[in-house]
Amino acid sequence: MKIPGRFLEEARQRCVPREECVALLLGRGDTVMRWTWVRNVAGSPLAFRIDPEEMYRAITEAEEAGLELLAIFHSHPGPPVPSAVDKRYMELWPVVWVISDVYSWRTAAWRAGGGDLREVPLEFV
Asked: What amino acid positions are annotated as catalytic residues?
């Protein structure tokens, strides 16, 4: 998956350890062209929850622009690997999940399907 380098720069400025930070990555194929930051209504450093109306609005606007939801980004206060909760929701939202460690900014991407979890190659362009 190709993600603009400026996205990660923006994440570093926005995201803080006290609350997981969330964005929807939008584009075509495997290339992110745009992103939308969404509120973490859980307000937790260990979990996130997106308001369904905010999610619907962001996806609808993307589709109107000819884009699709490619990935869900969120920060972790530790290694960029899916938590047990992430894995459950990855089955419900079968897109790539991009996770960044809010301290080191190591970033990894994952996709779940059929009970398997696999890492997706990332390229910041």
From this structure: 20
